[in-house]
């Protein structure tokens, strides 16, 4: 555990070598990176953690709206505690890609290279106002009808799958992870979604850095493919296809690890 202002952060460290920080999306936790982190631990010191307020990282103050910059500060403090002054490779998916961008812009000396996978940079879209209104409606539906209906509305509109239920047929660690992820949706819809999607990255900082934008190359095109492409156009770079879809790091860990290693070392 790492004590930071307003929270106690649960983290895990695997392997040895240059530090590599893996940053999850809004409802994920360190366990979702377990297979990927294990594969990369032969080359890197892999650092994973549960975002504040999610899973095993508890808030130490009253709950309230969270922001990408707050998670970026947590990542900064965690890297300082684990890696010291050595810069890290950073991979972030969805919200985690945005956290990585904030870390890069405010603490560039800590980031050797950043790979952002399908970042949810809604505020860059030309129809951002429509999406902000939609996310407000989803959060209000959650308050009225509960998680199931709101989650189906949300995932259906952005084009990703609803997280599976923690069925008894699954191994216990997987069931526990899925239960935590579903529990984290409460935090997401109450305190994260509406504020996180207001984040606007520092494009100049991204242009000056080793920065790669990637997206799942398999399955249907989603809203996250669109946000990734809009950011790529702003930065002046291309989008690289990675294995799998939005959670390709979990469904295709071996291929994803190879692609990530090749991007960092290429």
Derived from helix and strand composition plus strand pairing, the structural class reads alpha/beta
Q: What does the main sheet amount to?
A: 7 strands, mixed
Widest sheet, order of strands? 3-5-4-7-8-9-10
Portion in helices: 40-55%
Question: How large is the share of residues in beta strands?
Answer: 15-25%
Task: Describe the structure concisely for a colleague.
The chain has 266 residues and is of the alpha/beta class. It has ten helices and ten strands.
Question: Can you describe this structure?
Answer:
This protein has ten helices and ten strands. The mean pLDDT is 93. The chain is an alpha/beta fold and 266 residues long. Helix content is 47%, strand content 18%. It is globular and about 50 Å long. A seven-stranded mixed β-sheet has the order 3-5-4-7-8-9-10, sandwiched between helices. It has a three-stranded antiparallel β-sheet with strand order 1-2-6, with helices on one face. Helix 2 crosses helix 3 (95-106), helix 4 (128-145) packs antiparallel against helix 5 (147-158) and helix 4 packs across helix 6 (172-196).
